[in-house]
Amino acid sequence: MSEKVKLEVLNPRGVVEAKQANAPAPRLTDLAGKRVGLYHNGKPGLDNFFTVFEELLKNKYPTVKTNLIRGSFEITDKDAEAWAPQIDTFVYGVGD
Amino acid sequence: MAGTVKLETMGKPGVFINCTTFDDDAKSASADNGMPTLRRVKISSQDFYKLRGKVETIRPLVEAVFDDIIDALTKPLTPEESNASGGKYEEESTAGVTVTAESYPAAAEEFNSVFLNNRWGDGLPLIPPTEERVKWMLSGTKRKPDEVLGRINPKQGVATIEKIAINAVMAGAKPEYLPVIIAAMEALADEDFDDLHVLASAGSFNLLTVISGPIAREIGMESGIGFMGHGWRANNTIGRAIRLSTLNIGHTWPGKNDMALTGRVSPHTFFTFCEAEDFSAWEPYHASRGFKADDSCVTVGSIHGESQLNHFYGGMIGTWTAEGILDRMVEDLVRTDRRGYFMWGTKGIGKYLGSGGGAMNHMIILFPELVEELKKIGFDQKGLQDEIYKRTSIPYDDLNPAERKSLQTAIELGVIPTDRKAVFEAALKPGGKVPVLISPDNLHFFVAGGAPGCAFSFNYYRIPPYNRTALMTKRITGATLTKAGAV
Amino acid sequence: MGKPGVFITCDTFADDAESASRDNAMPGVRRSIIKSSEFYKLRGDVKTIRPLVEGVFDNIIDAITTPLTLDEADTAREIKDDDGPDEITITAESFLAAIEELNQQFVEKRWSDGLPFIPPTPERVKWMLSGTTRSPHEVIGRVNPKQGIATIEKIAINAVMAGARPEYLPVIIAAMEALTDEYFDDLHILVSAGSFSLIIVVSGPIAKELNMNSGIGFLGHGWRANNTIGRAVRLATLNIGKMWPGANDMGLTGRVNPHTFYTFAENADLSPWQPYHAGRGFKAKDSTVTVATIGGASPMQNFYGGMIGTWTAEGILDNMVNDIIRTDRGLFMLWGVKGVGQYPGSGVGARNHFIILFPELAAELKNMGYDQKSLQDGVYKRTAVRYEELSPADRRGIQTGIEIGVVPAERKAVFEAALKPGGMVPVLISPENLHFFVAGGAPGCAFSFSYFRLPPYNRIAVMTRLVTGATLTRAGVIEGKNVPYGA
C-alpha cells in the first residue's frame, strides 16, 4: 500500500466572460436574381479565386448580380454599413 | 472575423472562406466575436497557397468547394445553428487541478504533463501553482489579488493580480519580481495597447521588456555581459511570467490561434532585461516618458520577428568610435525605413489611421561606454534623437514620384499627425529634406550591456495594426519586498 | 619553454583569464589587469592610451622580474576544480519550498540556466536512463572549456533538469556526441563574445515518435520534445563544460534562444524529399541529429514565402542566391588568411549555410526537377561570381587559400580553372556547404543561418550523428538490443 501524494494547483487561465452569442442571419432560399457580395481583403490569390467563383456562379444562376469590394484585413464598420444595402448575401475571402 | 459577424447581424447571410491551417483560428475567432455558428467553408492550405497564382491552376480548387459555398448561403439554418445564444464559451474548466502520484517528483511530472496537454504550459518545466506558492508569490505586492488590470487578447481573458501571480509561480519567479511582472501586464492589458498582433500574428513578432530604475538592482537583474541570455533568474523568469500570463489569460496556442508561422525566437522569455545599473551619464529611459528619474518602470514594446537585431557593433572585434557607430545606425535606419514610404499614404490595416504599416518606432540599445562617448561629444537622449532624425532625412530631390505621392497622401489622410504636418509640408518641396521618421520621439534609447558591449536595435510599426500603440511605459507600484516600487 | 612572461587582460575578462590559465594547467600565470572601461575607449590612439600604459607599466615590470612566490612556484600539485559533493540534500517545510530552495541554490552555484528545473533525484535519473540501452558510465567525450567528462549519466542528470522525458534521451545523447566529438569545435560556440548559437535538427522517424513539432510555430514554445531536448543540451554543456556568462562564457549580448537553442525536426510528413541525413552518408530510414554552430545574435536571413505576398520558388531561390552572394562575396580576400587557431583558414573565409525550406516550397522545387543534391549544385553554380569582377585582393586571397590548403585538394582543380578570364568563381568551397532542411507548416517561411566552414578552434562545426540505443521508440534502436541498461 503506497502512500499517495496529492498536489493541488490553482487554475492559471484568465476568465473569459460569456459573450452574447448570436445566430447567423437566415439564409436566402435561392440565389436567382440576387445580389451576391464578394469581399476581398487584399490577400494574394483572391482575385483568381473570385474570378473562377463568379464564372461558376453565373453559370448556375444566370440572373445573379455580383458586387466585389476590396478592403482591409477586416471590413471596417463604415464599409460594412455602406456595402450591406447593396447586397443580399456575401462570400468573405481572407486569402488564408 | 468581426466584419463578417457585423454583416450577419445586419441581416445579410454569408459564408467565411478559410484554409485548413487557419480553421481552428477561424472557429475560435467566430466565438470571440459572438457568432460561434457562423458558417465557414474550408480549403486545403497546401492546395490554396500552391494554386492561387493563376486562374487555371486554382479553377479545380474552386470547383471542388463551389457546392459547399452555395449550400452555406442557401441551406436553411439548423436548430443548432439558430440556437446559438446562451453565451456559452467553449467548455474550459475554471477549477483547479489535483494530481496524485507515488512521490512528489512523480506528481510534479504528472502535473507538468497535464498542464502541457491542456495547453497551459510552454514546454519547459513549471513550478506547480499550489495555493501556498501563490500566497507566497502574492506577498510581493500590496495590491489585492482580485484587482482587475484589463483583458488579454485574443480571448479577452480577464487579467487579475491573482492570475498573474499563478503564472508567475509557474514561471519560477520570486515574490519580489511580481510588481515588475504586474507592471508589464498592465501595459499589455491596457485598452490602447495592441497585444493581439504580437500574440497571434503569423509574423512571429516578439516583445521587448525593459526595466529601468533602482528596482532592477534590488531584485538582482543582470545588465552586463550576456544580459539578454540565460542564467539570470530575474531577467528570465520575469520574461517567462509574461509569456505564461499572456498564454493563459489570453488563451493562445501555437497553430490554433497563435499563428506565428516559424515560432518566435527566445520564445520562453522574450527579450527581457534592465537598463545598466550605476550608470549616470544619462537619465533612465522612463525619465523621457514623463516619469521621475528615481521611479522604477517597465517599458513593454512589440518588436519585429526573427531578424530584428540590427547590429551596429562596438564590441571587441575592431576599434570603434561613437561617430562610426552613429554613421552605421543612420545608414541602417534610412535603408530600412525608406522602404516603408510607400505605405505612409494608406489608410491602414485596421481601424486606426496608418495602422500596421508606414513609419516605425525604433528601440535602440546602447552600451554604457558608447553613451559616455556620445555624452562627451555633446549628446544627451534628446540631442541624439534630434541628430539622428535630421541625419536620416532624405533630400526631396532624391525621392521618386511614387514616394512623393505617398507622402503627400499621408498628409492629406492625416496619417502624419497635425503637429508634424508643417514639417513635412515644408520638406516636400525642391531643396527640402524629408524625414523617414514621423518624429524624433520615435527613437527610443535604452542603456544596457557590459564592457565591452554592442549596440543594436529593434523596430516595429509606430501605429500597430489593431490598436493605438504597441510601446508603453508603466510605473512599478505596490512592492512590499523592495524599497523601489513601493508606492 | 622557460620564458617568463605576463598576460595582459581587461577586468571584464579577468575571471575568464583565470579560468583559462587553470584550463591550460598553469594557474600561476601572472596577469596584469587593465580596466575594460578604459582600454576599449582609449586604445584607438597612441596619445589616448599612453596614460593607461603608464598606469600599469610598473605592474608589468614587476610581473616579469619579481621572483615567484612559494605558492606560484608550487606547480607539482594537481589542479582539480572543486566539483562539489556527489549529492546535495535540501530540507524544507514542504516539497515545493524545497524545490524553491534547490532552484535558488543551483542558480547561485551556476549550475542552472535561470529557469525552473526538475530536481535530478536518483529516482528521476534512473527513470531517465530507462530510455537508453547504453551504460550510464559510458564516456561520450569532453566538453569545453573545462574539458569536463560527459558520461551518459551526467547527460541524463541534465536531461532530467531540463524537463525531458526518457524517450528523448537517445536524441540528446546523439547531440552531445556531436558536440564532444574530438573534431567538433564546441569551444567557440560555448564561450565566444559573438553569442553564437546552435541548430539541433532531428530527422528520421524518431521525430514523429517523440511528438516533435515541425509545423506551425515549430521554432517556438509549447513543444516539450523540441524545447527540452534543446534545453538538455544547454544544461549539459553548461554543467559538464563548466561555463558561466560573464565568467568564461563571454557572449556579450547573450544568445537569442538562450535556454533551448534552435531545436526542431524535419517535417517528414510533408517533405517531398528524403531526410537531410540521407545526403550525408546515412540511410533514409535512420534517425539522426545534426548539430551545427550558427552565426551571432541576429542569425536569421529571411527569404520569406509565408502569407504576406504570393511567392514563387524561383523568386525565393533568387532571394537566397542574392543573399549568399551578398554575405560571402566579400570573404574571398580572407580565404588566404592563416587562421585564428591552429588549422589553416580557421575562423575566417568561406561559409556553411543552413537553409530551412518550408514543405510547399520543397514541393515546388521538386516539381521543377530539384532534389537536395541538384539544388545544392544549382545554388552553388548560381552563386558563382565572374572572374572579371574579382579584385586583385580577392584573387590573391583565393590563390593563397589554394596554396595553404584552405581550399581542399579535391576542390583545387575547380578553383584553378575558375581563376581565369571567363571563369565563374564560386563563393562556396563546395555544393556540400549548402545544407537544406525541410521544416514548417502551410503556409511557411524559408530562412537560413550560416557560420564559418572552418571554425576557429577545431576542424568542423557541423556534424550528423545516428540516434542509437533507444528503448522506448521503434526508431533509434540498435538491432537486437532493446533492453534498458540494468533492467
Give me some keywords for this one.
heterotrimer, A: 96 residues, alpha/beta, 2 helices, C: alpha/beta, 2 domains, four-stranded mixed sheet, 16 helices, 14 strands, 36% helix
Structure in words:
The complex is a heterotrimer of chains A (96), B (487) and C (487). Chain A is an alpha/beta fold and 96 residues long. Chain A has a domain at 48-93. Chain A has helices at residues 46-60, 77-83; strands at residues 5-9, 35-40, 65-70, 89-93. A 3-stranded parallel beta sheet of chain A has the order 3-2-4, with helices on one face. Chain B has helices at residues 2-9, 23-32, 45-51, 55-74, 79-82, 104-117, 131-138, 161-171, 178-189, 195-200, 215-218, 233-250, 322-338, 341-344, 368-376, 381-391, 401-413, 418-427; strands at 14-19, 40-43, 97-101, 148-152, 157-160, 206-212, 271-274, 297-303, 310-314, 360-366, 394-395, 433-434, 443-447, 454-461, 471-475. The mean pLDDT of chain B is 93. Chain B contains 18 helices and 15 strands. Chain B has 2 domains: 2-82; 200-475, no CATH class. Chain C folds into 2 domains: 7-73, no CATH class; 171-481, no CATH class. Chain C contains 16 helices and 14 strands. Chain C has helices at 14-23, 36-42, 46-65, 70-73, 95-109, 122-129, 152-162, 169-180, 186-191, 206-209, 224-241, 313-328, 359-367, 372-382, 392-403, 409-418, and strands at residues 7-10, 31-34, 139-143, 148-151, 197-203, 262-265, 288-294, 301-305, 351-357, 385-386, 424-425, 434-438, 445-452, 462-466. In chain C, the strands form 5 sheets. A 4-stranded mixed beta sheet of chain C has the order 6-5-7-14. Chain C has a 4-stranded mixed beta sheet with strand order 8-13-9-12. The model of chain C has no long low-confidence stretch (mean pLDDT 91). Chains B and C meet through helix 3, helix 6, helix 12 and helix 15 of B and helix 2, helix 5, helix 11 and helix 13 of C.
Q: Largest interface here, residues on each chain?
A: B-C, 86 and 87 residues
Distance between the termini of chain A: 56 Å
How many distinct helices of chain A? 2
Summed up, the helix count of chain B is 18
| Strand line-up in the sheet with most strands of chain A | 3-2-4
As a percent range, the share of helical residues of chain A equals 10-25%
Write the H/E string of chain A, N to C.
EEHEHE
Task: Give a short overview.
Chain B has 487 residues and is α/β, with parallel strands linked by helices. Chain B contains 18 helices and 15 strands. A four-stranded mixed sheet of chain B has the order 7-6-8-15. Chain B has a four-stranded mixed sheet with strand order 9-14-10-13.
